[in-house]
């Protein structure tokens, strides 16, 4: 079953350009110059239920813009997108009950509250009955090993503990699709491996579809079964991970060569 379907997605931003110095600032006020930047340019792909997909590319490749269109935060200029059979543009609230998001650089938890209080808050947002919320908190705390700091304010947690709580909070309403944007950024190797184990576990036990973006080759290599590489707003590779594992060369080098080859062809 296809849980994500994107067809010819496009998104263009109009940005202002300013020259240097005071003259440039004054000119920008009375005679502003703008430039159109095509962040996503005809992107098409689909994702099967239960799949763990790496969606990667250099900074500015269009990864975050694509995710925002898939989750209904941004409207595409062209193309079609469906997530779980729902149009994110027309039914964003309905879709929000079916998906979860974790952004490694942005907090969704209230830092002055404990993880337990945050989980109760999220349970209320998703209209989960109190008794069911308590049950799910116990289950998640056991799976993610949160009991030791469940009642500690989030601001007093380590980065690794906070990320575990962020992922746990995104699973409280049992989403069918989870979008993970740089979930292991800034973590030490031991904590990274712990987070990866949790991601594998929730995919295995809850059959959650994982849509992962990461600059960490370890995340990609150890978690994902398929890889989509985007560059300059376009897909340059969409293959199973086995496609990249025939060579003894490190995966990072292979990916860099793909960037270079595709750019040279386009030029």
Question: Helical region count?
Answer: 9
Taking all residues together, what is the mean pLDDT?
84
Q: Please tally the β strands and state the result.
A: 9
Integer-rounded radius of gyration: 20 Å
Separation of the first and last Cα atoms: 37 Å
Poorly predicted spans? none
Q: Oligomerization state of this entry?
A: single chain
The chain-level structural class is alpha/beta
Based on Cα principal axes, name the global outline. globular
In N-to-C order, the SSE pattern is: EHEEHEHEHHHEHEHEEH
Features:
single chain, 267 residues, alpha/beta, 6-stranded mixed beta sheet, 3-stranded antiparallel beta sheet, 9 strands, 38% helix, globular
What is shown here, in short?
This protein is α/β, with parallel strands linked by helices. The protein has helices at residues 21-30, 63-70, 92-96, 115-125, 130-143, 159-171, 189-206, 217-223, 251-266, and strands spanning 2-17, 33-48, 52-56, 78-83, 99-103, 177-181, 209-213, 226-231, 234-240.
